[in-house]
Amino acid sequence: MMSLQGGLTIERKCVLARVSRAGFYRWLTAEAPREEEMEVRAAIHEVVLEHRGRYGYRRVSRELRRRGLVVNHKRVARLMREDNLVAVQPRAWVQTTDSDHELKVYLNLAACMQLTGINQLWVADITYIRLRTEFVYLAVVLDAWSRKVVGWALGRSLAVRLTVAALEQAIAQRQPLPGLVHHSDRGSQYACREYVNLLESHGMLPSMSRPANPYDNASCESFMRTLKREEIYANTYRDLEDLRAHIEEFIERYYNRIRLHSALGYLPPEEFEQAASAKANGCGAACMSFFGHGEIYRWNDKPAEHGEPNRSNSPAHLIDESPTGYSLAGCSPAEPDSASPAIDHFQGAATP
User: Fold this and answer.
1) pLDDT tens, residue by residue, 6-19
2) pTM to 2 decimals?
3) Does the residue 94 lie in any domain?
4) Which residues, in sequence order, are CB contacts of 172 under 8 Å at separation 6+?
């Protein structure tokens, strides 16, 4: 605008032309839409159609920036609203977890972890999908660090073979080192012996959420909501095989490779992993640490004046919640022999 105005402001031009500013702006808005706005609208339509109506204004704004078109997100929201480009809306959530069983429930290790790379923490979940004449079930396994779907399975039954198939696919694709933590809810499909044996045979540590505390599995539940909102509710399917083909397309060629993820700085999961790998200069060793590891007993390092331990920096918990001797490949090293004894929560006994 300044290049067309020269050195004069709008107010000065109105004075020289002997017109009011209000009249000038009425004339300006009565003109045909500017070419620039039409280009923005065209770009928005292109993104919305390319992603089949799955993107809201935030992701459309980010995608436009990735393509070199910097547009304010409020403007994008206004234009999408004016053009009726509304994203697919969610539906009500239905619980599918069956945790009423007598199987062993494992420690929640995910709550203590700081992730620095792939294959350190996997999260798993199950959801149902309604077809015309039946209900089917989808089990998925995500890498919690990159939000990438690393394994999934679709079937007509909630039997353990569904979750086992998803886990086996994840193992085959990623080949993780021992020490990976697998987190899930307390459902019988994850607590059963067959599933736990598969985890243990590959050196994985089972971890489970506690009742009314689903936050450690939130990334997997968020993916389920995204899948249903952007794929399932937006389409109809002839049968199970038709659904399977669409889910494969969504997961393998859209979600993992193309869809921008807000938790990853608006990068697709695979691009996020590649960018992180490039920054790491080819260092592929997994690294994982627990909050407070090495600080659990730090308060008794320096005695106080009267012979009592100095608790001025005492942590909220005095027991290291990580398993004793937790030094599998890809994990933080175990405490040295001189450290205070840790409690073995799996055996229920103190280890010197």
Assistant:
1) 567 888 888 888 88
2) 0.58
3) no
4) none
